[in-house]
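Hey, quick one: can you model this chain's 3D structure?
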Amino acid sequence: MKAIGEFTKGIIKENPVFIMALGLCPALAVSTSVENAIGMGAAATFVLLGSNLIISLIKNFIPAKIRIPCFILVIASFVTIVDMTMHAYLPPLHKSLGIFIPLIVVNCLILSRAEAFASKNGVGLSILDALGMGIGFTLALVIIATFREILGSGTFLNMQILPQSYKPMIVAILPPGAFFTIGLLMGLFNQLKKKNN
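Sure thing. Here's the predicted structure for all 197 residues.
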């Protein structure tokens, strides 16, 4: 039962973006389209999974004084794998996400899961935590991007879904649109969380 709780907590109860307000930099920057959101979510989930796995395996060998630099080194290794793989096999997505792929190294979501969870728990629970948080982060990005892409472009996954006569709300795909969308969705999620408690 504990395993199920560790997996599901990151999806709604402790959603990284809407509840814990972690990883907001990429959430604001790349959520202009659902395609970008899925790409960033998948990249962050891979890095979360790999870093939680390795950190939970080597936690007893890392001296306490240098644990954060060690965590960042592990995270940076997985980010390099993601960056090079995307550059080789998904060049348009790599170009679209740009600097935000290397910035996964300093994403507070990934470092916080390494420090708060993987360094204190076993491999199995660390993997479940990473998967749950990764799925929660990806879902949050996709929800934000869905609103922004539909309102700002009239498209979903680059397919026109609103009539050609629709005048796009350009503000939705600009930075203020990201702040408004995330703010409204955070309020909604926190309201739902209060009702469920």
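One thing worth noting: DSSP finds eight helices and two strands in the chain.
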